[in-house]
Amino acid sequence: MSNFGILFKKELKENLFSRGKGEKRDVFSTIFTLILILIIIAAFVYIALSVVKGYVTLKHESDVNFNVDFSYIRGAEMLNLLYWAFSFLLVFYILEKERRIIIDTKDRPIILRLPIKSSTIFLSKFLVIYCLSLFTSFCFILPVNIIFYFALGTFDITFIFGTLVNIIALPLFPFFIATVLLIPYNMVLRFFKEKQFITLIFYVLIIGLGFYLYNGLLDIFRQLLETGNIKFLFNGDNIKLLNNLYKYNCPLNFFVNISLNINTLMSYLGVLVVLIITLAASFSLANIMFKHTLYTNNPVKNKLYHTSLKAKKPFVSLLKKEFLLTYRDNGNLFSYFAIAIAMPLMVYASFTLFKDLISNAIGLELDFVLGMLILFVFIVLTNTYSSTNISREGSAFLKSKAFPYSAKKLFLAKVTFAFIVSSIASIVSTCLIIIFGNLSVLESIIIILMGLVFTLSQILLGTKMDLNKATLVLNNYEIVKKQERTITKLVFSGLLIALVLGVLLIFSDAILPSLIGKDVANVLVIVLAFVIPLAYLVYAIIFYLYRLETRFKNLVL
Q1: 3-state DSSP call for residue 544?
Q2: Is the dihedral of CA 461, 462, 465, 466 positive or negative?
Q3: How many CA atoms lie within 13 A of 440 on its CB side?
């Protein structure tokens, strides 16, 4: 096999197939992940199809300027907006892949000693990045194009060919933009690498903005269900804005025209020109950057931390260690602190949205049930960080075996730190539910206490699961990839308990009052809200304590 083929296979294995030699394929994790992806895609397709079907029926005065059916113009405007949003997100996706694979490559010391041309090395990395973007393009463009063809009611061979062309060619334009921005992007990341507080604020803002947009999408869907008409969102000014964006959004409007079979000759020629220019420019520019960084070790300036000479109690020192492990690493900072801080906002947005939706749809107030269900779901998502409580320390965790402390004391610090952060987020979220919901005093007390109980249960389970399957490596990116099975099990068990509790509470609160009486049903709701989380906590404590010392003593690299 040629040098290029060997390197290309190596890059594919490292970036597409993360399973190491001798590792078993995690079938459960794969199936669960695929189910979640299918659910998300199904929800997106259902909402998007409803919006598009309504939008393509709207007329505007500017339609007389086109020689195409106005429904196709409406479809082109909406598809152009989706392509623009996807291209914007794809730029950041490719930026991160280029930074990781081209600039921050960890195989530099090895490949520099091999008799291989730098152009061959670069080409293998470049094509892998393109393959990754190609797969992302396929997952987005295919369902989106199917949605529009169903909405417009036409399907022919041009759909298949046009969709294939767009899947292959569309990523190249974001690829070029990402390559131009690669060096500035890398410089910004290096600047903020040790500015943890600023980074934390940035992460929280990004999460808040993303959830605000997501909540806006759900709110649009809610109003669409209530009114049955899309006109409340798209008035004449909005249609005109989307129309101008479609007309002047070159070259993305070429891809839109190809998908909808509008002005096909000019569009294919435009895409061909864009394909040639962006491919050549991206390859040349990235090649120059790669050669510049290949022989340059760009060290990050290490900040000097002055240690305090004042002695602290052992448990306090262990807590401080957990805090610094999280705070000084940007990946951990995002996966825990940022998500925990943003959790109350996400709970508030989801609760108020679904509260109105349920009230308008079935005419019942299920604030207590809904609040507990939403709170538990976000507690699960926030505490996935606990599933790497041991692994994120890497081989350094083995040094704790030399400490004159028992395993219970060492792990108690990890559990306590995670519980402090998560409980604050849970209490604030619960307070928002109480303020904006119609809950009694007893229900408010229950939802606060059970939120803390469920939080502790998730932390105990995640910590022990990680101890049982610890991956003591030094790279946080590898930790996340290798601990997918633990994370999946933790999320699955938490969501299952939340779902079972939610279904039982809804059944008891909405259906049983007519069968056994309202008073008895209310008592049953309170009992279930207590018993299920407490039973889950008992199980978590038993699972956590079982052979804890033995697992710790047998832990090796």
Answers
A1: helix
A2: negative
A3: 7
- 388: exposed, middle or buried (C-beta count within 10 Å: 0-12, 13-18, 19+)? buried
Q: Label residues 32-44 b or e (16+ Cβ within 10 Å = b).
A: beeeeeeeeeeee
User: What is the rounded distance in angstroms from the CA atom of residue 167 to the CA atom of residue 137?
Assistant: 5
pTM: 0.64
- Cβ burial of 313 (10 Å; 0-12, 13-18, 19+) is exposed
Q: 311: buried, middle or exposed (CB in 10 Å: 19+, 13-18, 0-12)? A: exposed
Show the DSSP H helices in 469-512 as ranges: 476-482, 484-510
| Residue 468, φ and ψ in degrees, nearest 5 | -65, -30
**DSSP string across 370-430:** HHHHHHHHHHHHHGGGGGGTTGGGGGGGGGGGGSSS-HHHHHHHHHHHHHHHHHHHHHHHH
pLDDT score, position 261: 80
What does the alpha-carbon distance between residue 177 and residue 536 come to, in Å, rounded to a whole number?
Answer: 49
Q: How far is CA 259 from CA 40, 146, 278, in A?
A: 23, 10, 20
Cβ burial, residue 150 (10 Å; 0-12/13-18/19+):
middle
Q: How far is 423 from 453, CA to CA, in rounded Å?
A: 9
Task: Give the Cα separation of 95 and 87 in Å (integer).
Answer: 12
How would you write 3-46 as a 3-class SS string?
A: HHHHHHHHHHHHHCCCCCCCCCCCHHHHHHHHHHHHHHHHHHHH
| R_g of the chain computed on alpha carbons | 27
Please report, for residues 101, 124, 262, 306, the alpha-carbon distance to residue 250 in angstroms, rounded to integers and kept in the order given. Answer: 30, 30, 15, 54
**Which pLDDT score is estimated for 308?**
52
pLDDT given for residue 22 in this prediction: 46
Low-confidence ranges of the chain (pLDDT < 50): 19-22, 297-305
Compute CA 150 distance to the chain's CA centroid, rounded to the nearest angstrom: 28
Three-state SS for 272?
helix
Q: Is the peptide bond before 109 cis (omega within 30 degrees of 0)?
A: no
* Alpha helices (H) in 99-195, listed in sequence order: 108-111, 118-152, 157-169, 172-192
Report yes or no: 360 and 226 within 8 Å, Cβ to Cβ: yes
